[in-house]
Design a protein that fits this description.
Layout lengths: L4 E10 L2 E11 L4 E5 L6 H8 L7 E6 L2 E2 L5 H7 L1 E3 L12 H9 L7 H6 L2 H21 L14 H13 L5 E5 L7 H16 L3 E5 L3 H7 L2 E6 L2 E6 L1 H6 L1 H8 L3 H12 L1
Parallel strand pairs: 3-8, 3-9, 6-7, 7-8
Antiparallel strand pairs: 1-2, 1-4, 4-5, 9-10
Helix pairs in contact: 3-5, 3-6, 5-6
C-alpha cells in the first residue's frame, strides 16, 4: 500500500545548529502517528518543514503520491494537510464561528468581485460556509460558544476551536502540535476522545505530544527524535521500552536507570 505521507532523509539546519538530520518515515492513511522526543528534538521543526513554513535543506516529502516540498503553506493546506500550532493562533477578537469560517474559505470559489457585488452565488456560498462551520463547532463540542469571542473561550475550548478551524479546510492529514499542552486531566480526556473520533471518521492524524498517556493510548505507531535524528519507531509499548528512548528522556543509560531503581527500592 502506498503511504499517504512519505518523508525521505529530511534535513534542516539553522546556522550551525542541526535541527533535523536525514529523518525518514511513512504514515499510512487512517492511522494516528505520534511524534515524540525531548525538548529541542526537532519535532516542531519537522512540522514546519512539512507544512511549508521552512524550506528543506535536503530530502523530500511526498503526499498522496505527489511531491510536496517547495510549496507555500497555503498550497500545502490546499493539497490536504492542515495543522494546529503549539502556541494557540486564533483570531482572538473574532467569534468562534468566524474563526472556523475563515478556515473554510480555502475550499470556496467566490472571488473579490463576487464578494463586492453580493451575487446570489456568493450569498449561497457564504451560507454554506456558515452552515459547515456550525457543524464543525458541534463536532468538537463547542457549538454553544459559536458567537463568543475566541479569545474569551476557556483554554480547552480554544484548543478544540483550532482543531475545528483546521478541519474546515477538509484535510486528508491533520497535524496537531501539542494539542494537550496546558490542559488539565479532564480537558485532556475530552481531547483524547475527539482525536479518536476524528480517526474513526476516516482522518489520518500526525500528533506531536508530551502527554505520554495520550500518546500511548491513541497512537498506532510512534517516531522518536533526539537532537534532530530518528532514534526509534514502532508500536507505543515497544518504543517505551527502547534503550535509546529511555536514555534520551531520562539522561541515563537504561542499566543505570534500573540500578537506581534497585537502590531506591532497597
Amino acid at each position: 500500500m502506498t503511504p499517504l505521507l512519505r518523508a525521505e532523509a529530511v534535513s534542516k539546519s539553522f546556522g550551525g545548529v542541526r535541527a533535523l538530520h536525514k529523518v525518514s518515515f511513512t504514515i499510512a492513511a487512517g492511522e494516528i502517528y505520534g511524534l515524540i522526543g525531548p525538548n529541542g528534538a526537532g519535532k516542531t521543526t519537522l512540522f514546519n518543514v512539512l507544512t511549508g513554513l521552512y524550506r528543506l535543506d535536503a530530502g523530500r516529502f511526498s503526499f498522496d503520491s505527489a511531491p510536496l516540498e517547495g510549496l507555500a503553506p497555503d498550497k500545502v493546506a490546499a493539497r490536504g494537510i492542515a495543522r494546529t500550532f503549539q502556541n494557540i493562533r486564533l483570531f482572538a477578537n473574532l467569534s468562534a464561528l468566524e474563526n472556523v469560517m475563515i478556515g473554510r474559505h480555502l475550499r470556496t470559489r467566490a472571488g473579490v468581485f463576487g464578494a463586492m457585488l453580493r451575487t446570489r452565488a456568493t450569498r449561497a456560498e457564504e451560507a454554506a460556509i456558515e452552515g459547515r462551520a456550525l457543524e464543525l463547532l458541534d463536532y468538537v463540542g463547542i457549538r454553544a460558544r459559536a458567537n463568543d469571542r475566541a479569545g474569551s473561550l476557556p483554554y480547552g475550548d480554544q484548543r478544540r476551536l483550532e482543531i475545528a478551524r483546521a478541519l474546515a479546510t477538509e484535510p486528508k492529514l491533520l497535524a496537531l502540535d501539542e494539542p494537550a499542552a496546558g490542559m488539565n486531566p479532564t480537558e485532556a480526556e475530552v481531547l483524547k476522545r475527539l482525536i479518536a473520533r476524528i480517526r474513526a471518521d476516516g482522518m489520518t492524524v500526525l500528533l506531536i505530544e508530551h502527554n505520554m498517556r495520550l500518546v500511548m493510548n491513541l497512537c498506532d505507531r510512534v517516531l522518536v527524535l533526539d537532537y534532530g535524528e530518528r532514534i526509534a519507531e514502532g508500536a507505543p509499548a515497544a518504543v517505551q521500552r527502547d534503550a535509546r528512548v529511555i536514555e534520551a528522556y531520562l539522561g541515563v543509560a537504561p542499566e543505570d536507570h534500573a540500578q537506581a531503581g534497585t537502590r531506591d527500592a532497597a
